[in-house]
Inverse folding.
């Protein structure tokens, strides 16, 4: 039996909900107030048996990020379950610097699999702890946004914030 804590914080991009395990590792997160939508980002076998509302340590990193301290999310622990390639991909996503997005093709090269562009995109799509594992920093060739589980408006706002472009309020 595992227990997780869920917390929603307000951000300029809308409500942001975090699901955190007992060791304060982020399991899943995203721009919604819908707790079920966050929990179902995890495979059924990896979902906690009990979810309770409460405070999480990671929420302070979210606030700091939105206050302009973009590196605040870098040291927040996450817990992810996947294939060896997915785990390597999620780790590589954490090394993409704010304001320096990669294309899916460049991300595939970073994974040492230049022909695995679709796999690189799939790694992004299956990323549960959004923001902390910044899959929003991967774009289509030519700079098009591509997909994002939390909406292209949020992805654009994050990229603009990280590029130093003032967000429209």
């Amino acid at each position: 039996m595992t227990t997780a804590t869920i917390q929603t914080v307000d951000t300029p991009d809308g409500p942001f909900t975090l699901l955190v395990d007992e060791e304060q590792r982020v399991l899943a997160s995203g721009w919604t107030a819908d707790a079920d939508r966050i929990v179902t980002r995890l495979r059924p076998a990896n979902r906690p048996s009990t979810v309770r509302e409460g405070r999480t340590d990671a929420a302070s990193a979210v606030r700091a990020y939105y206050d302009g301290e973009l590196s605040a999310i870098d040291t927040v622990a996450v817990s992810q379950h996947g294939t060896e390639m997915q785990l390597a991909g999620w780790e590589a996503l954490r090394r993409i610097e704010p304001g320096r997005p990669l294309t899916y093709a460049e991300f595939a090269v970073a994974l040492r699999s230049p022909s695995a562009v679709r796999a690189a995109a799939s790694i992004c799509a299956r990323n549960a702890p959004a923001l902390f594992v910044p899959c929003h920093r991967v774009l289509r060739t030519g700079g098009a946004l591509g997909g994002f589980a939390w909406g292209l408006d949020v992805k654009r706002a994050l990229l603009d914030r990280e590029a130093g472009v003032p967000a429209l309020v």
Q: What stands out?
A: Strands lie at 3-11, 14-21, 26-30, 50-53, 102-103, 138-139. The first strand starts at residue 3 and ends at 11. The chain has two domains: 3-73, 84-162. Residues 84-162 form a domain with the Arc Repressor Mutant, subunit A fold (CATH 1.10.10.10).
